[in-house]
Amino acid sequence: MTTGTMYVALLRGINVGGRRKVPMAELRELIDGLGWTGVRTHLQSGNAVFTVPPEGGGPPPRERLERAIADRFGFDVPCLLRTGRELRDVVAACPFPAADLDPSKLLVLFAEETPAAGHFAGVDAAAYAPDEFRHIGRAVYCWFPDGMGRSRLPAALEAVRPKLTVTGRNWRTVTKLVAMTEQPA
């Protein structure tokens, strides 16, 4: 049995519009080269699941992964890490009736930092209806009943200061990543 902590890495801003390419086979190879085990990826948008064995000292896994990606690909990629348990907690805390909604229209914005309690207070939710959002811990849940394509809500959330390091995943991807953390590699 493998010991250690299972993580989900959410890479921000890669493989979009043909820029900042990080092929998933190379990402798996890079993560495996760090000595981490059970490495799997999902989609081309930078989602990886792996186990980090217990280590004594050294940089945290996020810093090690970001440094390795920069060294290998020549550009910086913010990597937001969640343990398998943290990702399951995000799913459990969803304030929307996810089982009844189109998973492509439900988005989770994962924040590296924990926003202050009133961080999004200046965003007038009514101005973006029917789109909705709720902030819980390091996650912002967004529901786009008409789809995200024309919504102005993402830009309003992005404009809030201080700026947060965030990356978004739709509900289908989030639940697939949770399932991957529950399956042996």
Structure explained in plain terms:
It is built from five helices and eight strands. The chain has helices at 24-33, 61-73, 84-92, 153-159, 171-182, and strands at 5-11, 37-42, 47-52, 79-83, 106-111, 132-136, 139-143, 166-170. The strands form two sheets. A four-stranded antiparallel sheet has the order 2-3-1-4, with helices on both faces. Helix 3 packs across helix 5. The longest helix has 13 residues, at 61-73. It is globular and about 50 Å long. The termini are close together. The model has no long low-confidence stretch (mean pLDDT 93).
Distance between the termini: 11 Å
List the uncertain runs: none
Main pleated sheet = 4 strands, antiparallel
Percent strand equals 15-25%
Overall pLDDT = 93
Counted beta strands: 8
Secondary-structure-derived class: alpha+beta
Largest sheet strand order: 2-3-1-4
By DSSP (H or I, 4+ residues per run), the number of helices equals: 5
Name the helicity range. Answer: 25-40%
What general outline do the C-alpha atoms trace?
Answer: globular
Order of helices and strands: EHEEHEHEEEHEH
Rg, please? Answer: 17 Å
Main attributes of the structure:
185 residues, four-stranded antiparallel beta sheet
Task: Describe, in short, the structure shown.
This protein is an alpha+beta fold and 185 residues long. It is built from 5 helices and 8 strands, in the order βαββαβαβββαβα.
